[in-house]
Each structure stands twice: as C-alpha cells, then as structure tokens.
Give the backbone structure.
Amino acid sequence: MTIGGGVCPLFSSLFGGGWRMSVYVWHDGRSSLLPLLSKFTVQHGASLKKLHGMKVIIRWCGDDGKLMNEKSRILNHSSYTNLLQDENKIHSILQFHSIIYTPLPRSANYSNRSSYAPLLLTRKEPHYLIPVFLMDALSIFHLVNEDTVSLKRDYVDTCKLHEVPIEEKTAMLRRLERFAVRVVYAMGLDFACVYAQIKRSGIVITHIDTNPVESERVNELFALAVNQYENEILNDEAQRRSAVFGMDPEFLLRNAQGKIVPASRFLRAKGDVGYDASTVLGRKEIHPLVELRPEPSENLAVLVKNLRRTMWMASNQIKDHSLEWIAGGMPVPGLPLGGHLHMSGIKLTTQLVRALDNYLALPLIMIEDTSTSGRRKKYGRLGDIRRPSHGGFEYRTLPSWIVSPRVTKGVLALASLIVQHYEDLVERPLDRPDILIAYKGGNKELLGPIVQDLWLQLETTEGYLNHSKHLEPLKNWIMEQRKWNEQRDFRVNWRIPPFN
C-alpha cells in the first residue's frame, strides 16, 4: 500500500487546488507513515511532480537522488542520512566533536549483523529518546522495558515511551536534550531521534534514527514542529532584514606583573557591565572574566556605539587604570574568552548555524593569534547554540573579537550578511575531516584557499555591497593573514581612558 499526497482541506478550500505551500514533506509512500502524515497541515506525498517551486523539501525517507530541484532546500539530505548505515563513520564523526558513541548490540537471532537486525535493550540500561528538529529538542522520553526488547520500528510497541514532564526535567536531562541537538548537528542532519544513556563517564549516544519511531506522541511532536516551521519561514525573509543583534564579549584584567586581577574585585554580576559566572577552580567567590552586555539593536552602527559605551562604563567602575584589558581567544593559558553573538527575530535553523560556522567562524581563523587555537580544545565548538530565557538564540562559537573596532565591525557586518543570505551560502567545508582538524588546530596554510573560495561566494550575495565598508577591511586582514594581538591592551584601539 502506498500513500498519495495530502494537504489540509481548509487550506485547499481557501486557496484553491492550485495553491502551493512553501514546505513539502517528501516520502517513499510506505503505509507505516500514515499516522504521521495525517497530522501534517503541509503538503506531502511521494510524487515528484509537486516539488517544483517548493522552498523547502523535508525528506522523510526515500532516495533524494530523484530530487533535481536545486533551488529547494532539502532537509536530511541522503548524503548525510546514508552515513548512519556505517557505525564506524558515526563513531569517527562524533569523535571529532568529542561525543561518545557506543552502538546498541543487534539481536543474536539474526544470522547477519545488518542494520535491519533489531537493537537490544536490557533492563539494566536505562535509555532516553530525544526527538530533534532544527536545533530544537522537542521533548525527552524515558524508554521503559520489562525485558530485552527491540527498538526496530516493527516492534516499537513492546517498548514503552514515558515522556518526561517539563516540571520533572532535571538539569542533567536538560543537558541531555542539548546534547541530542549537538549530535544531530554533528552528523549533518536536520532532524532525527537520538537514543542515549547517562553514565558516570558522561552521556553516551547509542543510536540515531532519521525515520522516527512509530509512536503517537513522537509523531505529534514532529508534525507540530513541521507545521510551525512552515508558518515561520513564510515571514522569515522579511524578519531577517530587521533582525536584532546583541553580544556579551569577555575580557581579562592583567596587572604589570602579568597576574590576572579578578573582575569581581570591581564589578557586580548583573548590569551592562559585570563579571561572568565562571569561577576559579576551588574559589567560587572569584570571577576572573569581565563581560560587556551592550543594548541590542537592529542597527549595527548603533550596536557598536552601545558596545563602546559599556567600555566607558567599565572604565569608570574599574578604578585601577594601570590594569591591561586583553581579549581574543586565550590570551592567558587556562582562561578561554568568548565573543557570543545574540540574535532575535529570526528562525533558528541548522542551515543558518552551518552558514555561521563555515562563513564566519572559519574565516576568523585566518586573523586569530597563535594562542587562540588553545581555546578550541574545550570551548568554541562548532554549532554551539544556546537559547536564553528572554528569547532569540546565542551563537557561542567565536572567541572575543573586540580586539579592535575594525575586527568588531567586520564580524558584526559578516554575521548580518550571513543571516540575510544564508540560504545562498551552501558550502560546508567543515564537514570534511581534514578541514575540521585544520580548524581545530588553526592550520592557516591549509585553510587559506578554502576561505578564499568562501569569501568569493559572500561577494556574490545581494547584500555584500551594503556592508562592504566594514567587510572589505576585514577581508584584507583575512587574506593577508594579519593576526590580532591578544597581548595588547585593546583600550588603545578603542580610545578608552586612559588612551582617549
């Protein structure tokens, strides 16, 4: 039995049979999808004829080699879902991202060890299932079983899924949800169900499934996410032009003897200028990092003025003007600094985050100081996103780029350009293991030609000229591999007292 295309009858009556939505769920027509498809309000089907003109194609299953509409964005492209058929590749990719992968054993009742053999789960191994769609964990389920059970979809009814209520989510379970998003992103996917365990050694990933389990509640969550996604992207292009940017860059205070003076000696925790929550090991009352929190703005020039205002505020509160202000990635060993970008008013998607990684974080490698790469051993991982309680999202991959006004304005202009045109910025060199290793190690010689090609693509975007005043100086630094100096007091460049 196969399933034909479908769309909500209400939409058909309002807009007529010829009306098309911007999202299409494409599948291979298997009958087991019927409970899920019945919950979609977006168009769906196995026919290729209806794909023309679609903005986004959500590939639920099937061979997308038949999808020749290059202008459409394909979620869960087969180039990445096919990787899940090889456990060695999964292990290798996740290892690059510091994620532990220990696959569940297959049933011994099967003569071969193919991916079709059921996965085994024992009572002694509590498991969790986290459905993920576009950088969001939709919920978290505890897998409860009375005996060894199969996770194969044909037998999923034998495994009970208990959804964890929001009020019962511990800090560890919330961390597990964020970790599942990280796994899906690392594998190059847009949505999946992630199976995981929490052990003393940390979180262990045991299985990744891009054809989500046939559970009524899981189907409902994915359908709600897909339906909401279409509603959001209908207005996304207009919203991107009025996106609001913010930041909270960090820096250190260093005395003449080369010792770090804690920010908490001068500043409070909250406010436009304060100390970061991180502490010194064994000394919870000592907070070494200064954090600037300028007022967000749609206008990047205003945002830079707001940043400079917080620097003046910091100068007034940090009475000892003999202390050096140092930024960058890791000007002092063991004290990594971040330059987190806040964005609101735009839809968070995997494609946007990958564009920020490849077209922003990667080019900045070319101008970083030699000490900056030390930060990426533990911090600054690719796709590092956090959703604050006040809305929007925070891109946390970058080091503290407030080393100079030129770099700051260039970073903000580049981020704005990427947000506006990320659908046109489709190259993903960081998916290559050799490029990923070079990125982590700061290998500028290998990355140079890659960055040049990426910048050529940036220059073809419609909005490049609008930002060229700040992009061209940054481009010159990048192409010349002119590195910033993390040991220099950045107040000199910003003309902050006593250098004003």
User: Anything to note?
Assistant: Residues 216-234 form the longest helix (19 residues). The longest strand covers residues 244-254. Confidence is low (pLDDT under 50) at residues 1-20, 110-116, 151-157. Residues 81-234 form a domain with the D-amino Acid Aminotransferase; Chain A, domain 1 fold (CATH 3.30.470.20).
